[in-house]
Amino acid sequence: MLASIKGFWKVCRYGDLYMVLAALAAQSINISVGFCQGFSAVLLPQYTHEYPQISYEQSSWIASLGVISNPIGALLGGMMVDAVGRKLLLQSIVLPNLVGWLVIAFSETYIFLCVGRFITGFTIGMSTVSYIYVAEITTAEKRGVLSALGPGLVSTGIFIVYSLGSFVHWRKVAAICAAVSLLTPFLMYFAPESPLWLASKGQMKEAYSAMFWLRQNNNTAQQELMEFNKDRKSDEEMTFRQKLALFKRRSVLKPFALLIGFFLFQEMSGIYVILYYAVDFFKSVGTSVNEFTASIIVGGVRVFMGAVGACLINSFRRKTLAATSGLLLGITMLGAAICDSLQGPPLVKLACVLLHVSVSMVGFLQLPWIMSGELYPQDIRGVMSGATACCAYMLIFFNIKTYPQLEYYLTSNGTLYLFGICALLGAAYCYLFLPETKGKSLTEIMKQFNDDKKEADPEIGCEKKATVEGNVVQRRHSAGAAVCLEKSNNLFDNRWNHDKTVEQCE
Question: Where does the Major facilitator superfamily (MFS) profile domain lie (predicted)?
Fold first, then answer.
């Protein structure tokens, strides 16, 4: 008991508590994301029972329309996040979310139901800003576990919807989802804006105040902002051609290609099919457990394994978790397929599917979303994270929309084999190509993709070259040199420049 009190005091004393609270406030949007993703699984069985004339094609549109607007939301959010800021965008997401759920709750026709699903899909697309915000406010040691809270809270939202849908009418479930959507803007009112975004806009005093609130330590706040600003080039100094060239850098194109490949294998492993078609999936696979009960069990397993995954992400390398998760995904799905082919016990198939859901939460599902907020440079992180999420949601939509046809042509057994093989290929891809980000600062991650990796002095991170009266000179510093922090009143004003930073590194 005494050790727990000391541990809690240590968290409060060194500012981790404020950082954790801000991360939780931002990640709370993912509860609403879980509502959107899990709602079709409980809506479709009830709705088709009320309206038997609804065709299979119309049912697939109800499920997939919650995804088709995800790319639009992600792209719009990516363009807005660098302009209006991370905090304001997180608070603004409540508008499409609230409107969409109310349209669903009061819809009287199939068309209005589809419109409501389309609007709520914006929430999922724009919510990726939470990963950017968490990546920018956390330390390298805590970034992994706090970013992993996002997928965990998505699973919590899915579990709540699955549970409510088993005994509550879908209209009342939609009304509850609308009320919960107000949680994020309320919590974010007390959290600060991202200090890195404020610094990138030249608002150094506000950036320092936000960083001090998060770290509760004056020296730490100053040092982190100095590290961020020493090589930053103001947008005002760049021409349009230079800004356009930012997107052609190797440090942008390579992470983008790697993440799209990761997302492609993620979708083809069957993770989102089980998520969006949970009840119908268990009915088609043919387990002995009631399909509604099975979907609730899946939701509970996702919540528990999301917590396990958040713990593991700070103990193991990203590449190790992703490859191991993909390998186990393939084995469990192939196990379910083989059991189905041999007409084995239905409980064995259910166990394989539950294991598939479990191992997805410790790497394959959460890591590409987390890494989309880590791998891109600060100057275009918002836009590129939005573009990546846009492509990912397009893949999810294609997967969800074509699943009924895929099952029709390949049968449920054939789709299980396809998902298993794709998961194994994804495991090999992650092991061979995925970059490592565990325990690294955002600056260190960027250097993995930098064209000129020798630009910075590896001993202390300051540039080797400094301009003095028009001449280029070489400066070297000892590895143990401390950073001198001036405490003048104008330290964090808008005239912070590179030359001052170099001088402070002496």
Answer: 18-438
Q: Distance between CA 208 and CA 226 in Å, rounded?
A: 10
375/262 Cα distance (integer angstroms)? 13
Q: Which residues pair with 472 in a beta bridge?
A: 467
* Strand boundaries in 57-131, DSSP class E: none
Q: Which helix (H) or strand (E) element contains residue 474? A: strand 471-474
Residue of 494, 506, 491 whose CA lies nearest to 226: 491
Long-range contacts of 496-500 (CB under 8 A, 24+ apart): 496/204, 496/229, 498/230, 498/231, 499/466, 499/467
On average, the pLDDT of the chain sits at 78
* Residue 276 · residue 37 · CB < 8 Å: yes
Strand partners, 70: none
Question: Residue 260, Cα to own-chain centre: how many angstroms?
Answer: 14
pLDDT grade for 479, boundaries at 50, 70 and 90: very low
Residue 48's closest CA among 313, 286, 240, 279?
279
Rounded CA gap, 502 and 468, in Å?
11
What's the whole-model pTM score? 0.73
Strand pairing of 471-474 and 465-468? antiparallel
Please write the tens of the pLDDT for every residue from 160-195: 998 888 888 999 999 999 999 999 999 999 999 999
CA 482 – CA 480 distance, rounded (Å): 6
CA dihedral 365, 370, 372, 378 (to 10 degrees): 180
Which CA distances in Å does 191 have to 87, 91, 187? 8, 11, 7
Q: What is the pLDDT of residues 225-267, one digit of tens each?
A: 887 776 555 444 555 566 567 777 888 888 999 999 999 999 8
Cβ-based burial of 278 (10 A; exposed 0-12, middle 13-18, buried ≥19): buried
Cα angle 80-83-87, degrees, rounded to a multiple of 5: 75
The HSE-up count of residue 171 (CA atoms within 13 Å, CB side) is: 8
Residues written for the chain? 506
CA distances from 369 to 12, 81, 240, 309, 386 (A): 29, 16, 30, 14, 11
pLDDT tens digit sequence for 423-470:
999 999 999 998 888 877 777 777 777 654 444 433 333 433 433 333
- Tracing tokens 């930073």 back to the chain, one arrives at 501
CB atoms within 10 A of CB 6: 10
Q: Where are the alpha helices (DSSP H) in 181-317?
A: 183-188, 195-200, 204-215, 218-229, 240-245, 250-267, 271-276, 278-285, 291-312
**In whole angstroms, what is the distance from residue 204 CA to residue 200 CA?**
9
Provide the Cα torsion 375, 387, 41, 307; round to 10°: 10
Show the DSSP H helices in 364-497 as ranges.
367-371, 381-433, 442-447
